[in-house]
Amino acid sequence: MRRVFYVGVLYLLFNALYCIPAFAADWEVYPPDVREAALDRQDIEDDISFEEWQDQVASSSVASRSNAFRSSEPPSLYSSYTPYDSSISTTVIQYMSDVLPKLGNVSYVLFRSGQYTYRLVYADDLQYVNGVFSSPGADYISYDSRDYQWYSGTEGSFTLRTNGYIVYSDIGDYPVLARDSMYLYAVMFLGVIFLLFTLYRSFFNPGRVVI
């Protein structure tokens, strides 16, 4: 009888273990949200009801007019440069020399602003004092040798510290840009005058036409 009793107990025990399956559960702990924690602490401290807490969280916001205003004048530009430590391409010098007569009676400074960029800044009130070019309102023409593009625009307030580097300017102790086009026009004008004078003399001295 005792053996049968033990067998019955083991049978019931096995049935109980079979009916209760075992699961392996993975858990991850997430830190509480700061806003939720703050609201929870506020609920505990203030001891308010759920309806009052819901009204506070879901309360409608009221929009107010901004005190921003539009300035009547646009912000002024400011440019400060130091020339790049290298020479200026002869192609750029030739181009700037040809463009310069079209700018009118202005002062200018040509410098290399980067490894691939050149800049001609000009203005009526361009000044040079102690190695520094400056102007409160200047314009520019620039060239980028990487894409072979020319650009022009408003420079704004301009400052250039030469630091002994190579620049071209009509003010200060620096070389000027050769106005080759003006010289060419002058030579052509003198040539036309000489030709007209020779033709004029030929009409009054038929036997002494010398060209």
Structure explained in plain terms:
This protein is an alpha+beta fold and 211 residues long. Among the domains are: 78-177, no CATH class; 179-211. It contains five helices and seven strands. It has helices spanning 2-19, 34-46, 50-57, 90-99, 180-204, and strands at residues 78-81, 107-112, 117-123, 127-129, 132-144, 149-161, 167-169. Strands 1, 2, 3, 4, 5, 6 and 7 form a seven-stranded mixed beta sheet that branches. The chain is elongated and about 165 Å long. The chain starts with a helix and ends in a 7-residue tail after the last helix. The chain crosses the membrane at residues 182-200. Residues 1-24 form the signal peptide. Keywords: Membrane, Signal, Transmembrane, Transmembrane helix.
For this entry, give a set of tags:
211 residues, alpha+beta, seven-stranded mixed β-sheet, 5 helices, 7 strands, elongated, transmembrane helix, transmembrane, membrane
